Amino acid sequence: MLKSLHMEWARFRGATGVVLTMTASVLVTVALGLLIAGGARSTCVTGEGEGPCPAPLLGPEGTAVNDKYYFVHQPLTGNGGITARVSDMTGQIRLPDAVPGVRNVTNGVLPWGKAGLLVRQSLTQGTPYAAVMITGGHGVRMQHNYIHDVPGGPVRGPKWLRLTRAGDTITGYESPDGKKWAEVGTVRLAGLPETVEIGLFATSPGNVQGMASRFAQATAAFDQIGLQGASGSWRRDDVGVSLEEDGRTPHHPGGAVESGGRLLVTGGGDIGPATLDGGLRADFTLIGGAVGLLLVLVAAAVFGGAGHRQDPGPGPVARAVVVGTAAFAAGLATAGLAVPLGLALLRANQNPIQPITLATELRVIVGYAALTAATAVLTLALAALVRRAVVAIVLAAAVIVVPYALATAGLAPWLLAITPAAGFAITQSVPTFAHVDTDPSPLMGYYPLPPWAGLAVTCAYAALALTAALSAHRRRTGLRGRPGDRRPDLQGRFTWTEERGSHPHLFAGAARRWARIRRCP
């Protein structure tokens, strides 16, 4: 095997076109990534006018979060809780303008519009919290610290909710009638102070259309409100509300109105992960990866397609090890340059960046290298099977690049779960959260599979294709034999077998010896 690897490695180094194509894949991907990063400019309108966007708000676990809602609350010292019935939830949603310049607002509640009971450390944005709530389309939920979500039961008509505190432990309950209670979830908020804020809230994320998020609000009607451990007056805060350019007027303010024994709470924003407006992602720097992989596919197919014309002894495995190693090195160089340099350019241009840990950055870099190697091995195996480099390139592009392009355009994102293109998930630098609405596109950071699961799908396809190529190789060499083999025919006489690509002088010498034997008396 070592001899075979040495031979194949020497042949790879001697294939100038293959080496240059692999090198070009690095240059193209890095150039595209840096070009996009260098041209990115994020601006925001604040009370001080238009300018660079502020750094993303970080939650307790270091992720970028949204923390904007209307809160009717009281301080709670020690243990206690709150119970209330949410009798109704309505809202407003802004849709794309049918007439330019004319706002198109309709009544309705987005699926992740939410209202319910909330307890949190303080009103400071980004601090720990826990909440039990009803939603516009996902039933009852128990959420805490922005990124954690537990489903409850469905919402059919009015719903009773209860939230209790016992030390650091917060428990949420639901009930259809206020008598029979079911636990939704229990969480522990480490370091919760003696006095916390507890009360009623309402909020709604924006209506996501591509990379834009338009205004939406939710209004919830609360009644039969009961407090345990708190008996002060209600306080009202529009937490996280933004201001118009004058610096004084609230932009889409919330509010609370008491009417007929009910408390109507209206809010806009979200309490959850900031996947869309939390800053630019690190994987933007690898946005040219599909183009670079096309060149890798070409190099692998040409190298693998040429292999069947050589001595079949080493077989596709040795060639796969060589091309996979070379592709891994190319992918490592690509991501190792594009990601850190691209992030540096984004920061230099004062763009907000989604927080990324060192472990995640390393996973993106090494994972992209592994994806490059897996796609190269898959393409080489296809070339060994079909024995035509051009056909192998078309097949590989059809199952790797095309599904990724379709998913990026928002078409058939499910292809990233069942095709070799699933491996692109390894470049995801911000997780996909189920309780956040986003367009199902890699451009928005969406992948149907977790990073390592997606890469495992690509590797599985590569392994199956290589196994099939090895089986086909053994059948071909078993039928035709190896160069110089002598095999008896049906009459027991020995004949020489010939393999295309073997040395013709061996057979010429055999022919001359046979001619001399026939001339002997």
Task: Give a topology summary.
Elements: H1 2-14, H2 16-39, E1 43-46, E2 49-52, E3 65-77, E4 80-95, E5 104-107, E6 114-120, E7 129-135, E8 140-144, E9 148-151, E10 159-166, E11 169-175, E12 182-188, E13 195-203, E14 207-209, E15 212-214, E16 216-228, E17 235-239, E18 242-243, E19 250-251, E20 255-259, E21 262-267, E22 270-273, H3 289-307, H4 315-348, H5 358-386, H6 389-399, H7 401-408, H8 415-418, H9 451-480, E23 486-488, E24 494-496, H10 504-519
Protein described:
- The protein has three domains: 2-38 and 279-479; 58-273, Sandwich (Jelly Rolls), CATH 2.60.120; 486-519, no CATH class.
- 36% of the residues lie in helices and 28% in strands.
- The chain has helices at residues 2-14, 16-39, 289-307, 315-348, 358-386, 389-399, 401-408, 415-418, 451-480, 504-519; strands at 43-46, 49-52, 65-77, 80-95, 104-107, 114-120, 129-135, 140-144, 148-151, 159-166, 169-175, 182-188, 195-203, 207-209, 212-214, 216-228, 235-239, 242-243, 250-251, 255-259, 262-267, 270-273, 486-488, 494-496.
- The strands form six sheets. Strands 3, 6, 7, 8, 9, 13, 17 and 22 form an eight-stranded antiparallel β-sheet that branches.
- It starts with a helix and ends with a helix.
